[in-house]
Design a protein that fits this description.
This is Phosphatidate cytidylyltransferase. GO terms for molecular function: phosphatidate cytidylyltransferase activity. Pathway: Lipid metabolism; Phospholipid metabolism; CDP-diacylglycerol biosynthesis; CDP-diacylglycerol from sn-glycerol 3-phosphate: step 3/3. This protein is mainly alpha-helical. It folds into two domains: about 130 residues, no CATH class; about 130 residues, no CATH class. Helices cover about 75% and strands about 5% of the residues. Strand 1 and strand 2 form a beta hairpin.
């Protein structure tokens, strides 16, 4: 527990400091996290040192690049990068005579898009007007959801939510997580933490509370399939980057796609 607390405090201070500063240090941090997150997924599949894995790694980083950095590569776009990666991976299946199959290239493409866009939209949130407050609000909601689900589940949880994927999660805990997210939303409205209507804040709170937990379950499913306890060991007592940011990688793209922020 002591190690977990120390790691959490150090990581939080560094993340908060760089996020508040913004600019290129924050962009570099996001790209670093993207690379680490992609490496963690590739290692689950034991593809971290493969040529195919390298393509996926580069694709994830390209997808996560800030828009203003990407403009320096014009006319090359992120769509071009995805198409090129698909074609290269198909070529590999031929050259390697099916030693690399569709299972491998599907995993690499899916993982690159999941990790790349997850971190990209976290970055996009930061650069919005009032983006610092909005970014922290969503993160506070995610942390409140995780904490609420854990403590409510521990206290009164009886009915299993999805035992095949995560045997310790309960329906009561999931409802508690959503409630805690809503509490954070209401507090942020009353304290004018963000310039947003109450209805929009509550809608965001509900989406974070529900889909943040789905993002956590999705990451748990990954780990179940590949029989690993944690995605990595970078954060002692916490696991890997994906273990800490699985909900965020699900929630931030969804909120942007639904145009609830931006």
């Amino acid at each position: 527990m002591k190690q977990r607390i120390i790691t959490g405090v150090i990581a939080a201070v560094l993340f908060i400091g760089i996020t508040l500063y913004g600019s290129w240090p924050f962009s570099l941090l996001i790209l670093l996290l993207t690379g680490i997150g992609m490496f963690e997924l590739l290692r689950m599949k034991r593809m971290e040192l493969s040529f195919v894995g390298g393509i996926g790694f580069l694709l994830a980083v390209l997808i996560a690049l800030p828009q203003d950095w990407m403009s320096s590569l014009e006319p090359f776009t992120k769509t071009d990068a995805i198409i090129l990666a698909v074609l290269l991976l198909l070529v590999v299946t031929v050259v390697q005579k099916n030693n690399t199959d569709y299972n491998h290239i599907s995993f690499v493409l899916f993982s690159s898009i999941y990790v790349g866009f997850g971190f990209f939209y976290l970055l996009e949130t930061r650069i919005l007007e009032g983006g610092v407050q909005l970014l922290f609000l969503i993160l506070f909601m995610i942390w409140a959801t995780d904490s609420g689900a854990y403590f409510v589940g521990k206290s009164i949880g009886k009915r299993k939510l999805w035992p095949v994927i995560s045997p310790n999660k309960t329906i009561e805990g999931a409802v508690g997580g959503i409630f805690f997210s809503l509490v954070v939303g209401v507090i942020s409205y009353l304290t004018h933490f963000v310039d947003m209507s109450l209805s929009n804040i509550l809608l965001i709170s509900m989406i974070v509370g529900i889909f943040g937990q789905i993002g956590d379950l999705a990451e748990s499913a990954y780990k179940r399939i590949y029989d690993v306890k944690d995605s990595g060991t970078l954060l002692p007592g916490h696991g890997g980057i994906l273990d800490r940011l699985d909900s965020a990688l699900f929630v931030f793209p969804l909120l942007h796609v639904l145009h609830l922020i931006g």
